[in-house]
Amino acid sequence: MRDGAVITVDGLVFDYPGKRALRGVDIAVPRGAVLALVGPNGAGKSTLMRVIAGLDEPVEGRVQVCGISVLDEPRQAQRHLGYLSDFFGLYDELTVRQCLVHAASVRAMRGASAQAAVTQAARRVGLADRLDVRAGALSRGLRQRLAIAQAIVHSPDVILLDEPASGLDPEARASLSGLFRELRAQGHTLVVSSHILAELEEYSTHMLAIRDGRVSDFVELGGHVQAGVQRLRIRLAGAWQSPPGFWEAQGAGLRDRGDPLLLTVDMPGQDAGAARLLKALVEAGAPVAECTVMRESLQDTYLRSARVPEGSPA
Q1: Helical spans, DSSP H, in 83-218
Q2: Are the C-beta atoms of residues 287 and 263 closer than 8 Å to each other?
Q3: Is 78 helix (H, G, I), strand (E, B) or coil?
Q4: Which residues contact 55 (CB under 8 A, 6 or more apart)?
Q5: Are 164 and 148 in contact (CB under 8 A)?
Q6: Which of 105, 114, 147 is nearest to 138 (CA)?
Q7: Per-residue pLDDT band at 259 (split at 50, 70, 90)
Q8: pLDDT for 112-168, tens place per residue?
Q9: CB-based contact 161:84 (threshold 8 Å)
Q10: 206-211 vs 214-220, strand pairing mode
């Protein structure tokens, strides 16, 4: 297992009859990440999830989850996995509680530990007050919540969710975003596919873009700047000329200036570095009117990756 990675995929190739769906996919997903899996229809997103989940066997390549080979030790690997497909099924005649008890039993959970897991999973997805309602009587959105609860009932290290917000109303989607942030804070690693990029942006830490079965981009979100560096946009109230060697002394990188009153600066040190730079600017007489941290949106990141010609560096 690569250092810090909870999911590793190496040289993954998968074929459907007459079609190659995955073409040499290599990724390493760090523990605690929420990975937004994006790409056009037919790109290979669902196939990649199914292979990681151990449901489909590739032609070539290796997949590890928590250091365990999904191909060689599928049962052991699946103890660390939760998976929700885009087309899920429920036992309509069972109650919410019975569905979750069954999901727990499939994971070899019994007795008090299973009951506690059922209660916790129902609470996490907002179904604690519907434990005795039949699954068939639930709305589309509540059925989706139940399916997610089944996927996380055993509190897996890795949770794979294919279009989990499909059919949810805005309030339920907001609740789901909160759930994903909570799961991440607890150390879980999530892989979430969706066509709603603005929704993914609310909780994702990384983006994996797939196109025609290949990885077109794999980046950490938050500005597409190297780790530990913030990109700042500083607006000046009037003209100012920096003293010789000013930017070098601060360890800052001044980017090309199209507007003399608008500075774009790459500054190491995160918030502490930004505060230090602002103090130095004021002391040097710069009429600073505003300073903001520039963050590239998930949609910007994805569209930029889509414009990169195949075989070119992202």
Answers
A1: 96-106, 111-124, 140-152, 170-185, 197-201
A2: no
A3: helix
A4: 83
A5: yes
A6: 147
A7: confident
A8: 999 999 999 999 888 999 999 999 999 888 998 899 999 999 999 999 999 988 777
A9: yes
A10: antiparallel
74-89, pLDDT tens digit by residue? 999 999 999 999 888 8
pLDDT number for residue 184: 87
- Provide the token pair at 121: 């999973």
Q: Which two tokens stand for residue 261?
A: 């009153």
Structure tokens that stand for 97 in this block: 């509680």
Question: Does the predicted model carry a pTM greater than 0.70?
Answer: yes
How far is it, in rounded angstroms, from Cα 68 to Cα 301?
32
User: How far is 242 from 145, CA to CA, in rounded Å?
Assistant: 56
The pLDDT assigned to 306 comes to 66
Distances in Å between the alpha carbon of 163 and those of 41, 108, 110, 129? 12, 27, 30, 25
Sign of CA dihedral 35, 38, 44, 45: positive
Q: In sequence order, what DSSP letters do the residues of 219-271 get, joined into one string?
A: EETTTS--TTEEEEEEEESS---PPTTHHHHHT-EEPP-SSTTEEEEEEESHH
For residue 50, the one-letter residue type is R
DSSP string, 210-228: EETTEEEEEEETTTS--TT
Q: What does the DSSP 8-state code read for residue 309?
A: P
Predicted pLDDT at 224: 45
pLDDT score of 296 more than 90: no
